[in-house]
Amino acid sequence: MRIAELLQSIKKHPDFERVGMILCHNGVVRGFSRDGRKVSGVNAEVDRERLDALIAEMKARPGIVEILTQVNEGKLSVGEDIMYVCVAGDIRSNVFPVLEETVNRIKKEVLKKEEEVLG
Description:
By secondary structure, the chain is an alpha+beta fold. It has a single domain (3-117), classed as Molybdopterin biosynthesis MoaE subunit (Aldehyde Oxidoreductase, domain 3, Alpha-Beta Complex). The chain is built from three helices and six strands. A three-stranded antiparallel sheet has the order 1-5-3, sandwiched between helices. Strands 4-2-6 form a three-stranded antiparallel sheet. The longest helix has 19 residues, at 92-110. The protein is elongated, with a radius of gyration of 15 Å. 24% of the residues are buried.
């Protein structure tokens, strides 16, 4: 699935008339670690149960109509997509913080990554 497909799905939501904006995040595998070491990719594992619970929690926030995600697993190479998050809601002050918190919490609570460091 791609972001365009997530967007089309959101636009078919029965409450779409309440949506004033959709924000999307597309995380990709970087070619370097946070400490600057070169990497060839990552091995990623996703806790699907925790992801479902997190999304349900975030959907309950004021003004949020829908949140759709795709978090990829397995061996991912530099440049590959690792995560898509799309948040649809009424106004910026409701949607921006939910997107940021959702992405941060997926990275912290849902996604386990191990970098493949070169040399």
